[in-house]
Specification:
The protein is mainly alpha-helical. The protein has 17 helices and two strands. The protein has helices at residues 10-13, 24-51, 63-92, 94-114, 117-144, 154-183, 185-206, 223-245, 254-274, 281-304, 310-317, 336-355, 362-379, 392-420, 426-448, 457-476, 478-484, and strands spanning 322-323, 326-327.
Length: 489
């Protein structure tokens, strides 16, 4: 998204009705909280829905295919952020894009709840991925539109907004998991749809209070070019249909297609930017510095996003979920990480603020985050063997380490892409960041296909050591990468 440059109207600048923040933040807080409620609530039960037998209410798909579907879907969400940003910048503006995207998300959850079998999965996940990408691409931009650049409430407002994200991520798996256990998977998916409907309803009421600039199309697509873009969209949809009908694109190889699209798009973006004759020497150097960081970011996400694949399977088949005679739903594990984020995000922000210029440079943070992520995987080796024998406290500690890794690398990633971006290619650099996350997320699903609860030691050992090795390499080469960043820390 293009950055917001103009100041909001005086009435919004002086508004302190929502916990000292502008009242329109309440609407954005609500829609993002409910969107995350529905997103994480659905995702908490998705993989077990795919591989549970029909007698258990699932679809009976093999675990390798099930995890691949989840990974491909996750990668598609981040691919869709690029489309969501483009629609906002070129067609209808960020506010309308957010509203339309939230409607699409709700439609996807309704499809999962009401359409049986793989048809519901295909329609539902496609709509949720498309809509979530649009929400993710524009919500943060709309929050920024509420504050002048020098407004001292800006950071606190963003902190409150991200609190909403994590509240939704915490509550979603808890409630959908309970309903799934009591009534079945489609009731759980239905609750996710109800949550998204609640968020959409309150946003429909509050959206009118947003600044007028949120309706502005930053770089309108000329009418003469709209037919060409529409034709390209139809051609792409037709190509996907042909590949599916001919058997070249199947449920089993979907992650490979997503990875292929991400790789081609990433190479194309880097090539377009680096070969531009309009870059200064410093700008070109900064783009080159992002290449190794792109790779290490993809490695990090390929492990971190296994919370929704391998960790879910581990929780179902290896974790002792007995709580005083009551068996905890599998999806509740996905609520552990948001709690740690809520507690420790402010701590990390305070530490970096206190250190100031003495804080580690970004390549060091990336390296440390990836090393810590690898160590989290190695901690799985401490689990005792046997079905449903691993202690819940051990998994909670492992997810605490996940969170520490996340807070080292994730908050600075998107910010870094904007700081390294050449002035002419701001949006493309943000797209590259999302492409690295998309690659890692799709890879998380593909790698999970190699996980076997009966032979899990090599899996956790190899991936853990690879991540530690990649992170160590980044630390070794942090100085030359920092020099390439040309003054950016």
């Amino acid at each position: 998204m293009s950055p917001q440059t103009s100041a909001p109207p005086p009435d919004i600048q002086q508004d302190r009705r929502f916990l000292g923040q502008p009242w329109p933040l309440a609407s954005l807080f609500g829609v993002e909280m409910w969107e995350r409620f529905s997103f994480y609530g659905m995702q908490g039960i998705l993989v077990i829905y795919l591989y549970y037998s029909a007698a258990e209410g699932g679809l009976g798909i093999d675990e390798t295919t099930a995890t691949g579907i989840v990974g491909a879907y996750g990668g598609a969400v981040y691919l869709a952020t690029i489309l969501g940003a483009w629609v906002a910048d070129r067609l209808i503006g960020p506010e309308r894009t957010l509203f339309a995207s939230a409607v699409v998300v709700m439609a996807g959850h309704v499809a999962l709840a009401l359409i049986p079998g793989l048809g519901g999965v295909a329609v539902g996940l496609a709509l949720i991925a498309l809509g979530s990408g649009g929400v993710k691409a524009n919500a943060t931009s709309l929050v920024g539109s509420l504050y002048a650049a020098d407004d001292e409430r800006r950071d606190a407002g963003f902190s409150l907004f991200y609190m909403g994200i994590n509240l939704g991520a915490f509550a979603g798996p808890l409630l959908t998991g309970l309903l799934q256990e009591a009534q079945g998977f489609h009731w759980g998916f239905g609750l996710a749809a109800v949550g998204m409907a609640a968020g959409l309803a309150q946003y429909a009421v509050g959206r009118r209070a947003l600044p007028a600039e949120t309706h502005v199309v930053a770089n309108p697509l000329p009418p003469s070019r709209r037919a060409a873009y529409a034709g390209a969209l139809v051609a792409a949809a037709a190509l996907v249909a042909v590949l599916a009908l001919t058997g070249l694109m199947t449920v089993g190889n979907l992650p490979d297609w997503v990875l292929g699209v991400v790789v081609v798009a990433s190479v194309a973006y880097f090539t377009v930017i680096l070969t531009s004759g309009e870059l200064s020497a410093d700008e070109r150097s900064r783009v080159w510095s992002f290449v190794p960081l792109f790779v290490v970011n993809a490695v990090f996400w390929s492990l971190y996003q296994q919370q929704f694949t391998v960790v879910s399977i581990f929780s179902d088949q290896r974790l002792d979920r007995d709580l005083f005679g009551w068996e905890m739903p599998v999806s509740w594990v996905n609520s552990i990480n948001p709690v740690f984020v809520i507690v420790f995000a402010g701590v990390f922000a305070a530490v970096w603020t206190r250190l100031g210029e003495r804080q580690p440079v970004t390549p060091v943070k990336f390296g440390l985050g990836t090393i810590v992520m690898g160590m989290a995987f190695l901690l799985f080796l401490l689990s005792p063997s046997g079905e449903n024998t691993s202690p819940l406290l051990l998994l909670a500690f492992i997810l605490f380490v996940f969170t520490m890794a996340e807070l080292l690398i994730s908050p600075v990633g998107l910010s870094l892409s904007t700081k390294l971006a050449p002035r002419r290619f701001h949006t493309q650099m943000v797209a590259l960041y999302f492409l690295s996350v998309a690659f890692g997320t799709a890879m998380a699903g593909k790698l999970a296909g190699y996980y076997d609860v009966d032979r899990e030691t090599p899996y956790f050992l190899v991936l853990g050591l690879v991540a530690v090795g990649v992170g160590a390499l980044v630390l070794v080469f942090s100085r030359p990468v920092t020099r390439l960043m040309a003054g950016v820390r």
